[in-house]
Amino acid sequence: MYSIIETLFTKYALVGAFGMVALIMLISYGLAASIKQKRMGSALAIIIALVIAYISGKSTGGSKGIADFTLFGGFALLGGSMLRDYAIISTAFGVKLENLKKAGLPGIVSLLVGVSFSFFVGAIVAFALGYTSAVDIATIGGGAVTFIVGPVTGTALGASSEVIALSIAAGVVKSVMTMIITPFIAKKIKLDNPTTAMVYGGMIGTTSGVAGGLAATNPKLIPYGAMTATFYTGLGSLLCPSIGYMIINLFI
Amino acid sequence: MEIYGFGIVAACMYLGSFLGYGLGKLLGISGNVGGVGFAMLMLVLLSNYVEAKKGGFSERTQNGIRLLSALYIPIIVAMAAKQNVVAAFDGGAVAFLAGGVATIGAMLLVPFISKLGKSNTEPLVEEIAKEDAK
What we know:
The structure holds two protein chains of two kinds.
Chain A (H helix, E strand, L loop, with lengths): L1 H10 L1 H22 L6 H20 L13 H5 L2 H10 L6 H6 L1 H25 L5 H12 L3 H9 L3 H25 L8 H11 L2 H11 L4 H30 L1
Helix pairs in contact in A: 2-3, 3-10, 3-12, 7-8, 7-11, 7-13, 8-9, 8-10, 8-13, 9-10, 9-13, 10-12, 11-12, 11-13, 12-13
Chain B lengths: L1 H26 L7 H20 L4 H12 L1 H10 L3 H6 L1 H23 L6 H13 L1
Helix pairs in contact in B: 1-2, 1-3
């Protein structure tokens, strides 16, 4: 009996993941409707998914959330970067060219400000909490940019693996927090139009966080935020180990 | 046909990522620098061009693209379920403060930078609201 079920889940891994996600969304949209907050449906689904990821991580000791269970391996494919990027790109369909042009300048400014702001905030926190080597400080600062920039910076500068792990954790905190906080803070920061969505993508930059946060806020804004966010990690990987490190070196 | 929609997005993804990896190589970082952004830009340019020339893709082709974008939120939910949330919680004070302060601070700065394009923010709200109302 169990072996048949196991076969089904491992053989039809991707289909199983579709089914599970449908179930998660059914439950969260049902919950959202029952508290008369239909718009919160996707936010709830994301939060439930994160809770599942936490519980899975605790019980398997792995780093890939629910995908570490053999039965739910399909999540690795469905939630992986290939399908994510494929679907993100498709959201650009229907975007008006003039809206992009209008947000061009604030979009570019937000990328530069966003990367440097996160980097230096991360660096200051690292310094305040007792890290004194410029390499460690720059690596943790990179982690506050995104969980990819952290290890890229750390590897380039020769940081220890503990510090690199810490920088990844900082980036994951950012991504998870973005997914959870965005729908609640959206009104306050007027995140309801394409220009602000592009600025938001450029300021926060973590693609998964921005995508999840906007999905929970207003799916129509996703293409705008994703467009700038996708340049963020690249820009960070470029600036943090080079100019960023040099600036920190001046102060240390 | 619906599959044409899949094909169009796939072509944009390949071309965009080719540029992205090329740019990465050029800058000396291994990785895809803005590939998804380039691909999105191509899709925007292509669909705006076809719209102006022939009034848009055929209904069925559009359905293919729409199916993909409709899968987006479920994909994000699956992505959330495979995050290393334990690491985020176990990273300790440094990880939590560095990531958290950077996130909240950056969010609060958003309105100030949006002001650079202020004259453009308002009419677009109506457009989205109108589409929602449909």
